[in-house]
Every structure is written in C-alpha cells, then in structure tokens.
Design a protein that fits this description.
Strand order of the largest sheet of chain A: 1-5-6-11-10-9-7-8
Strand content of chain A: 15-25%
Oligomer: homodimer
Mean pLDDT of chain A: 92
C-alpha cells in the first residue's frame, strides 16, 4: 500500500458534518417551501454553460473570476484560446439564457426560483467562498411587468426570514427612479448621477465633511444647498409604515421621474400592508446604492437588526431587460437572491445557528441477537408511520446504544427485550426529556408522533458542536 | 444592440421545463425522504476536488473522462501539467475522501446518503449525460461491518421504488464469495476467475455455444463437466423467497468461501422477510457480474419488470475497503446508487413519468383593480394554511385567468368579485373535476386542503407535454 494522500477539500468551499448538513438542509427546505407558497416554480440549470453563451460581455471574465472547464480530451488537444465550457458564476445569467431559450414554452409573468451552487475564483479568505449556494427568485414579464410584482418579492423574503427564525430583520428599499429624479431636480444630469452616488456611498467610510468637500470640489462643483439636499436625502430611514409614507411625503414635489418612483414606492407600501407583512420588517433607506448601474426601479437589501456587521443577507431589485444578449424580446423583471452558504457561515460564526438534532427520530435498540427480526419489524412499522428510524443491527450493551443515540442527536431509543416482547410493549427512552416510558407496541408510532409534535412547540434543546 | 447569441445549453446535459422539473423534484424528494426513513444522514461535498486527491490512480483519468477546472487566473498563467482542480465523476471517491478526512468526527457504522450531480466527459449521444444526478447510500464500518447491513440496502431500495410508483421491479443479488467459491470448487484459480466471468457475461451476446467453445479452448481449457456447472450456475434465477432458498440449497456443498457466501445470502433473505419486503421484489441472479473487480461480497442490480431493456436502474454492492488511498484505517462498506437523470430520461422515453401538475395549488383571480388588497389578503390566509398560492396581480378577463391556470396545471382558481366579497364567500373553480363551488371565505383554506387530500387517493390526471 502506498503512502496515503492527505484527504482534503480545495480552499474556499464549505463542507459540513452530517448534523450541520441537516441544519443547512432544513434552511434550504424552508426557503424552497416558502418560495413555492408564493407560486414560484422550480428551475435547475446545468452547472456548465458554453463560454460563448455565459460570457457575453468581454472584460467581465477577470472581474468575475470565471472557472473554465475542460475534459481530459480537450486538455490533451491543448487548443488555444478560451475553453468551450465554464461554470456559472451566478443564477441570473443562466436565468436569462433559460428564459430566452424556452421563451415559447413559458407563461409570462414567469415566477421562477432556483437554488443551486455557483462558482467564483475568489481569492482564498475566511468567509469568502469559491463555491456557494444562491437561492434566487425572479419574476420575468414579457414586454412589460407591473410594478405590483415589486411588492411581492419583499413579502416572500419576509416570510422566508420569519420562518428561518434567525432574529429580527429589516427589508430596506430604495428606488432608482426616485433617486435619479431627485438628482435631476438638483440639476445633476445622467452622466454625473452615478459619480455622485459613489461619493454618497462612501459617507460611512470617509465621513460627511470629506464627502461634502469632494462634492463641492472640482469635477462636481455642487453648491451648498444641493449638497445639503443630497445629505438629507441619503440619510432618510423610516421606522414603521406611517413613517415611511410621511418620509416620502416630506421629500416635497419633484420631477416626473421622481414622482413616478415615489408613486411606485407608495404602492409597494400599500401592498405590503394588504399582505399583512409586519411594518417592523420593512423600511425606506434612501442611501442604498447597490447595483444601481444594473437596477432600474426598486432595490432591496435585508439586514439582521442585531447583526448589522453581517451586511445585506438578501438583495435584489427591478431591471428593465433580462436577456438582451440572447433575444430581441424585451423581458423586464424583478428578483432577489440569498447567498445561503455565506449566510450559514455567518450565522454559525455569530452563534445564531446550531448543529441540528439528527434527522433520525428513533433508534430501535438491539440487545439480543435472537430479537433481530422483531427489531426489524418494529422499525418498519415506525417507518410506515412516517418516522425516521435507525435499527441497531448488532447487539450491544444498552448503555452504549443510549450513549450513541445521545451523541448522534437521536431523541428516542425504542427498547424491547424478551420481557417487553412477551408483554407486547416497548420501553422508550426519551433522551431529550431524560424520561423513560412504556407503551403497547401497537401504539408506539402514534405515541412517538405525538411526542415529536409536542416538542416542536418547545424551545429547541441546543447542541453546540464544532463544525470543521 | 448587437446580434443576439443563440441561447443554448452544452450537449449532454438535461434541462427541464418547470412542470418536468417539478416531477423530477418530487422524485428527488421521495428518494431523500426514504433514505432518511432508514436512518441515512445527508452529506454534500463540493463539486470540485483537488485533482491530486480525486485522481489517485493514474490512468483512470482518460477512462473516466474527467473534467478539469481552471480559474481565469490559472489559465492566464498557463501552467504546465494537470490543472489543480477537477469535477467529481461519481460520489464514491468524494465519500472516501470525506470519511477519511472527517474520520474522527463521524460515528461508525456511518450511514450516509448523498444526492448530487456528477460530471463525465462522455461522448455526446442520446441518453448519455455529461452532467447527471446520482442518489447514493452507503454504510461504512470502521475495521468491520456486519453482513447484516447487506440486507438493509435492498430494503431501502424496495421502499424507494414502491413509492416512486414507476412499475414492478426486482432487486437481484449475486455474491462474490459464492461465485469465487464456486469457481474454486471447479478448480478455477483466482487469476482465471475474472476471465471466466467475463466470458460468462457474454452469454446473452455470443450465445451458449460460442461461450462454451471459448471456455473449452486455449487459455481456459475447461472440461465439459466444469463448463456444464458454470452454465447451470450462471443461469440460476429465483422466483419468490422459498425458491431463492431452494436454489441456494440446490447448489450442493462447496468450498469454505462458497459456504460463507451462501450463509450471507441466506441471512440477507431472512432479514428481507423480517423487514416485510414483498418476496416478488427480490431474486437471486447468479449471472450478475457487475463490478466484480471492485465488490467483494453481495452485489445488487435492480430492473423494471416490464422494461428490461432499460437495464439496471440501481446497482451496488459490498466492498472491503473504501478509502485505502486516504487513510490506513480499514473502512469496509456496502452501498448502492441510483442514476436519477438517466432514469428520468428513460422513464419519460417509455411514457412512465408524466409532466407534473403545478406546484401551485391555487390561483387567486383578480377581475377588478379595487379588489387587489382583498386578493392579497385571501392569498396570504391560504399560504398560512400551507397552500401554494399564486395571486393574479393585474386584472384580466376571468376566462383568460382560467385558461392560464388550466395550462399551467394549477387545479383551483379562487374567484371573488364585489358580490362574493359582500356575501363573505369565495367561488372556487376546480379545474381537475370541472366543477365550481362556493364556500365561506373563512372556510376556504380547509375546503381546499380537504379536496387536495381526497384527490391524492384518486388516479392522477395525466397531462402529457413535450419536454424540450
């Protein structure tokens, strides 16, 4: 036997032990279930796309640190130039390709969700991932898409984060039309709008005085009153529904573009109220600059109230045309993305997500070889009732089996010796409650189901473990 | 605007329209749920592995048509030699790496399932995929693993295919020890056993006479009685539990290795009976040669009774040492794999899987702009009750909305005009049954849930559509 090769993953990927994988999988299931409750349909695309199709813009390649793919055969031929295949770096370009390719088979507005891994050749760094899950929803219209869809997106996101139960959160909005309209009103034309915005985005880092100086200086040359107005605008944050409306009103009259943006935001607020989204979950934040060269209407960011340092955990917005590289059809859309791998990493880091209990509900113990057929039959009856069951296939001391179940996060151990079999009962050890009870074999499945349901109402018994 | 690039996927991948994706996702969910019912724990590994770790055997590379991965940066450097990263070509090598890497954090026997895509640079050909899902279960022991686990695997597989409801199936076994022991008994030594087996494997293709001639000829030189025995052995197929035991008995006495294999098979049969697996679902098939250079004990293949031409839809077996390349620990295991992408393709091809109904249960219609808040509130109440709901956000003619729901495979349309709102009711169109009924708004969610449950007992209304 040769010297073993050190088993290890490449840097920049997240690999989890089973109980953390169960916790991660439950988050994925919650997100998927919520997306489906809002009528979004599943799409999966291949991890590999044709480079020609994926990389429609020259120059973006290096920026996005694309991974190229070559089979053994292609490598041997050592063809010059860009390899034919590349790994997707997000789910938006594949969506554009998918919608353009299948345009005639899809019904519009097309609500789709996609939850897959994407790949970026990021520099190796703690908390930066080269492979990570994105969980995206988008609604794509044909020719037009009502601004009403802008309100559905934050309603989905609010439902997702309520159910993930990772603490209070706020979905914050800004609006490109409001912003551009406001800039117009101050005499800042289209070419300068992005530059001004970039300066405003540095407020936190550089401080107000420095930003003011830049805006007043060469290249911008803005007057004091315009700068005051910009500062005031970008500091607008609302608290609660009425305050959001009041803050919008307080901005005063503006250009037609500004008024269009304001009307859309008011409509979004009204819809969120009709949808019953708690008003603490959404707010205006007119400083949000995210992707303003790409988005054309509302933009969203979501933050955890108690953990602002994590930054936005779910972002997106409205865009005018999804797939101009692939089709002449105009396909406006609105969407949002959760970077789940990064979020999971940060939640673990902040102690907000715990190692899950096992997906196994019951360990059916075995102390006596002769009772194996009985243990197998009991296990199958529990499975038929919908429980997840592991059977101890080789006899061991009961103490060892209980210890194993406890460490593995399995709550129940079903114990049946000669005596229990003779009496038609099962002894059940409940490791969560530290209790033991006896139940007729025929009632075992329903008893465990009742216990399981009851427990869901209780606060979780948190088992802390190291992940890697 | 430049000329659009033709949106298309690379050859050899499967991409589905939403309703086929729903059907596929339901299969994934059924498989996962069943794996979990038998106590298997989830593992996901990165799609990229270090080439050095993935490709431990030289020469296997070309055979397996590995895809290598390079970031833009690595390509520019144009380093000589094999790229650092490669895509996994199965889930077994990543499992070996995972178990070896996390050995001290795992409890053995370790039952794991993994359902992810794998990559092979196959020649482009109908029904051959370069990216495909594998759904694997394995049980890995430390130092030893009881043969009892050999019986649990087919019990899981039987449960999976019962629930997938794609027709009658048979899980067929052979056993490497039985086979090698039988060969030994005929005086065929270890070196020749594989060669003889390869000839026997050609029986279907070449016919009995040709194979007999080869075995009697140069290089083999077997006598008539040995050849007769081989032919008889490889034609053993059982029907039913008692017949399987009888066929094993009828093989007569053999070498110690043979008897070991026979005892293990008898134990597997006894356990399957104790587990309540229907006897029509399993059979001996002593011709199975699959992977006999890798497997060391029981081997499994699964076929659809009505579609033998599809070949094995789920195969696996017992192996002595999973991870000898990565650790000095001995890690014996037993496992099986479902190639789900290929299976789904073949089921579609054979008309055994249909386009699913939508994942959306209800479309909440909208005819009048003023009723939007009501439609949103109704939608949210239905969601709170666990239903998947799409809201019509812009008013359209009712006929159009019904037509849309019908095409999209959405069963219920909830209709509320001024009149219904005034009376506190909702009109519900059931597109599956072609009926309409009226229900109090407060009872809508429970009424729809009852209808949905009832329908699950009925044969599915099959909607046929073209996939691509």
């Amino acid at each position: 036997m040769s010297t073993p090769i050190k088993p290890r993953t490449p840097p920049g990927v997240m690999e989890l032990l089973p109980r953390d994988q169960i916790a991660f999988q439950r988050m994925l299931d919650t997100i998927r279930g919520t997306f489906e409750q809002f009528g979004f349909l599943p799409v999966e695309t291949p991890v590999m796309e044709l480079s020609e199709v994926l990389l429609t813009k020259s120059g973006g390649e290096t920026e996005r640190q694309v991974y190229f793919v070559q089979s053994t055969g292609a490598l041997e031929k050592a063809e010059a130039g860009r390899p034919e295949l590349a790994l997707r770096f997000d789910l938006t370009v594949p969506l554009a390709r998918y919608v353009a390719e299948h345009e005639h088979d899809l019904a519009f507005p097309f609500r789709r969700y996609q939850m897959q891994r994407v790949y970026r050749g990021e520099r190796a760094q703690r908390g930066r991932f080269r492979e990570f899950y994105q969980c995206d929803i988008d609604v794509i219209g044909k020719d037009t898409l009502s601004p009403r869809f802008d309100a559905e997106i934050p309603a989905v996101i609010a439902a997702v984060f309520e159910r993930l139960a990772i603490g209070d959160f706020t979905i914050q909005f800004n609006h490109r039309k409001l912003l551009r309209g406001y800039f117009e009103g101050l005499g800042i034309d289209g070419d300068h709008q992005l530059a001004v915005l970039r300066e405003l985005d540095k407020l936190d880092k550089r401080g107000e005085a420095a930003v003011r100086a830049t805006l007043a200086g060469e290249g911008f040359g803005l007057g004091d009153s315009a700068i005051d107005a910009l500062m005031a605008f970008s500091q607008v944050r609302s608290r609660g529904h009425a305050d959001a409306l009041a803050k919008l009103d307080a901005l005063g009259a503006g250009t037609p573009l500004f008024e269009e943006g304001r009307a859309e935001l008011r409509a979004v607020l009204a819809q969120l109220q009709a949808l019953g989204v708690p008003e603490s979950r959404y707010a205006l934040n007119l400083s949000i600059a995210r992707g303003l060269d790409y988005y054309t209407g509302i933009v969203y960011e979501t933050t955890l109230d108690a953990h602002p340092q994590i930054g936005s955990i779910c972002s997106g917005g409205r865009y005018d045309n999804l797939a101009s590289h692939y089709t002449k059809s105009k396909l406006p859309g609105v969407g949002i993305s959760i970077g789940l791998t990064r979020l999971f990493f940060q939640l673990q880091d902040a102690g907000l997500v715990s190692t899950a209990d096992s997906s196994v509900d019951v360990l059916v113990a075995l102390m006596d070889d002769a009772l194996l057929p009985d243990a197998l039959a009991v296990s199958q009856r529990l499975r038929a009732a919908g429980l997840n069951v592991e059977t101890q296939l080789e006899p061991r001391k009961l103490a060892k089996q209980l210890q194993y179940a406890d460490r593995a996060g399995i709550r129940f151990v079903a114990i049946r010796g000669e005596d229990e079999v003779a009496r038609g009962v099962v002894a059940v050890k409940d490791l969560r409650r530290g209790e033991q009870f006896e139940v007729a074999e025929a009632d075992l499945a329903s008893a465990l189901q009742v216990e399981r349901e009851q427990l869901r109402a209780l606060p979780a018994h948190v088992v802390q473990e190291t992940t890697r």
